[in-house]
Amino acid sequence: MEGKVFAVTGAGSGIGRATAVRLAKLGALGIALSDVDEAALKDTKAQCIQYPTRVTLKKVDVANIEAVDSWINEVLKDHGRLDGAANVAGIAGGEGQVTEDIVQRDWERMISVNLTGVMNCMRAQLQKISKPGGSIVNVSSTSGLRGLAKNAAYASSKFGVIGLTESAAAEYGKQGIRINALLPGPIDTKIFRDGEAKGLFSSEIISAGTLMGRMGQAEEVAKVLVFLLSDDASFVTGARWTVDGGYSACGFYRAG
Ligand SMILES: NC(=O)c1ccc[n+]([C@@H]2O[C@H](COP(=O)([O-])OP(=O)(O)OC[C@H]3O[C@@H](n4cnc5c(N)ncnc54)[C@H](O)[C@@H]3O)[C@@H](O)[C@H]2O)c1
């Protein structure tokens, strides 16, 4: 990580925050943090600057293409380079549950944030990232491999992230840029607990569906994400990398 600069979306909480802190701990030269929640970003920054790294932060809604472009332009101005990007920001939930009840604005917001948001970030990042040597990790989900009842919009957005990742990986591999999808299973963060509170899934049932019989922690995902960003993963591109305690290896939970 030394001498390198990384951009992280969704850095105010959960996996994004854990990724930022791990990058700082491993000696990244600079980290550019973004999220819609500015107060949360400040907390993440406070954790990162315990280590010798330069941290900038910006309130950015990844669904807003102008805001993303302007953020990535600022990253280049502030840090002078961009070597890696973790596109982590995401949402789940919505009002309706089964597909016929999905509210159109919830569908559109889900696709805008989870899929178009990753596209907005990748487009801006690919124009600026170090070539060769750049690495991008897009956070999908095990729900990007198989459907998840009562979560059709979420699963659709996460399937899309995999298609986007694999297509871009094919385009940029020969230029020495690696692009991978990270697929977390059940991880104990706000997005999961909020979904559970709405009855979209149950931590107890999903945990029992993993081979390890438990939820994962954000830090366990961040360790793999940062590995994929690093040169240690120099021959890994276009991968669908699960971090799910074996959840996808043994059949998936089916709500309702
Ligand atoms: N927790 C899980 O079980 C799980 C499983 C599979 C995939 N994921 C994915 O992991 C990613 C991170 O989620 P998490 O578990 O850390 O949840 P989290 O709720 O702790 O963090 C999500 C972060 O994204 C930010 N965010 C939301 N909308 C945004 C937007 N429009 N623009 C910028 N930032 C925005 C939130 O403010 C929050 O800080 C998400 O893409 C999620 O879909 C999580």
TrEMBL record:
Similarity comment text for this entry: Belongs to the short-chain dehydrogenases/reductases (SDR) family.
Lyase listed as a keyword: no
Organism field: Exophiala viscosa
GO BP terms in the entry: fatty acid biosynthetic process
Keyword NADP applies: yes
UniProt-listed InterPro entries: NAD(P)-bd_dom_sf, Sc_DH/Rdtase_CS, SDR_fam
GO molecular function terms noted in the UniProt entry: oxidoreductase activity, acting on the CH-OH group of donors, NAD or NADP as acceptor; quinone binding
Pfam families (alphabetical): adh_short_C2
Record keywords, A-Z: NADP
PANTHER family reported for this sequence: SHORT CHAIN DEHYDROGENASE_REDUCTASE FAMILY PROTEIN, PUTATIVE (AFU_ORTHOLOGUE AFUA_3G09150)-RELATED, SHORT-CHAIN DEHYDROGENASES/REDUCTASES FAMILY MEMBER
Protein name: Short chain dehydrogenase/ reductase
